[in-house]
Amino acid sequence: MPFTMAFIHEVQRIESIIANNLLRRASEDTKIGNHFIPKDTLVMFNFWSVNHDPNLWPNPDKFDPTRYLTEDGSKAVKPPYLIPFSAGKRNCPGEGLAYVELFLYLVCMVQRYRIKVEPGTELSFEAVFGISRRPANLPLFIFEKVVH
Ligand code: HEM
Predict the structure, then answer these.
(1) Is 108 marked as a binding-site residue?
(2) What are the extents of the domains in the chain?
(3) How many Cβ atoms sit within 10 Å of the Cβ of residue 16?
(4) DSSP labels, the chain
(5) Are 140 and 118 in contact (CB under 8 A)?
(6) Ligand 1 pocket list (CB less than 6 A)
(7) Nearest-5° angle of CA 25, CA 12, CA 112?
(8) 0.70 cut: is pTM over it?
(9) Mind listing the pLDDT tens digit for each residue in 78-122?
(10) What is the atom index within ligand 1 of the atom nearest the CA of 22?
(11) What gap in Å lies between CA 56 and CA 93, rounded to an integer?
(12) Which of 6, 53, 55, 83 allows an S-S link to 76, with CB 3.0 to 4.6 Å?
């Protein structure tokens, strides 16, 4: 179960399904680091950039769920800068439900099916940007029922 959770965290990081948040307006003059943000400036949080920042993630373009696991593998720890559901007062109210759904759907599928693609199919991380990022070329998946 910790590895499954780590896998979900890593999918959310590397794919950044919501890559940019909605626009926000600074309600007062603000300073973030060395940047001065005057009142009424429109700002947009770039999740993709944080999720691929090499200062936060060693080898950020590598898909590696083990980066969340404790040394003995008994826990998956999500760092505070992984925020696929955003943060603050207007963060996603569906976060708890979405985690339950992601976990249960994934586990139910991999317990019942061996999921494959046609031999020779190239898989890639290439995506189309919109409100959410979607795979540019979704391959045909083959679901082979596992007989227990
Ligand atoms: C993987 C699944 C999901 C992801 C990655 C996601 C992500 C997000 C993000 C990034 C926001 C913007 C938060 C902000 O403005 O700072 C948001 C807002 C919102 N989400 Fe989700 N969400 C997911 C699933 C859900 C589900 C299952 C529900 C409802 C059952 C939901 C309901 C909402 C609503 C109502 C808002 C608007 C909140 C507001 O503006 O006050 N989301 N979501």
Answers:
(1) no
(2) 2-111
(3) 20
(4) -HHHHHHHHHHHHHH-SS-B---EE-SS-EEETTEEE-TT-EE--BHHHHHT-TTTSSSTTS--GGGGB-TTSS-B---TT--TT--STTS-TTHHHHHHHHHHHHHHHHHHEEEEE-TTPPP---EE-SSS-EESSPPPEEEEEPP-
(5) yes
(6) 17-18, 21-22, 84-86, 90-94, 97-98
(7) 145
(8) yes
(9) 999 999 999 988 999 999 999 999 999 999 999 999 999 999 998
(10) 15
(11) 26
(12) 6
pLDDT digits (tens, 9 = 90+) for 26-81: 999 999 999 999 999 999 999 999 999 999 999 999 999 999 999 999 999 999 99
Closest atom of ligand 1 to 132 CA is 5
- Residue 90 CB partners (closer than 8 Å, separation 6+): none
